[in-house]
Amino acid sequence: MRSFLEYLDRHLEENVCVVLLIALIILTNVEVFRRYVLNAPGAYTEEIIRYLLVTMIFFGMAYVVRIRKHIVCNIIPSTMNQRLQYIIYVIMTILCLIFHCVMLYASYTMVINQMLIMKTAPAMGIPMWIVSCGTICGFFLCIIRTVQVFVEDTRSYLKTGIAYNPGISMD
User: Fold this and answer.
1) Of 11, 49, 143, 162, which residue is 20 to 30 A from 89 by alpha carbon distance?
2) Are 47 and 124 in contact (CB under 8 A)?
3) Where along the chain do its domains lie?
4) Contacts of 86 (CB under 8 A, 6+ apart)
5) How many angstroms from the chain centroid is the CA of residue 124?
6) Helices first, then strands: H and E counts in the chain
7) 2-34 pLDDT, tens per residue?
8) CA 138 to chain centre
9) Is the dihedral of CA 159, 79, 66, 112 positive or negative?
C-alpha cells in the first residue's frame, strides 16, 4: 500500500494528463472523421474536448510545479550569494502559495455559484460545476506540490548550503 501511495505521489498529475491527452487525441480524430468523412459532425465533441483540455492544463500546472520546470526568472538571484538566493526563493514560494490559495478560493466560489444557479454546459447540458472541479483539483494540487518542493529544497539547503536552482530537477 505504501509503495502505491508513493507512486501516486510521484505520478498522479502525470498519469491524469496522459489519460486526458489520449482522450483528447481520440475524440479529436473521431470528430474529424465524423465531420469530413461521414459529413455528420457531433454536437457535443467540441465541448468535451474543450473541457478536457482545460482540466489537463490545471493538472499539468501541478505537474510542472512538482518537477520544478515552471517558468522562473533567475538572472538577478543567480548573481547573489547562496543565502540571498534562498531568501528570494522563500519569498517567491510564499507569493506562489498565496496566489494558489487565492485561486483555489476563487475556483471554489465559482463552483458553488454554478451549483446555486444550476448553470449547465450549452451543448451537453451537464452541470458546469462538474466541469469546473478540475480547476479546484489543479490549484489544490499546486498548493500541495509547492509545499512538497519547498520542504525538499529547504532540507537540501540546510544540508548543503546551496540554494535551489530552478534549472535543475531534483527528481
Assistant:
1) 11
2) yes
3) 2-160
4) 157, 163, 164
5) 25
6) 4, 0
7) 777 677 778 888 999 999 999 999 999 999 999
8) 4
9) positive
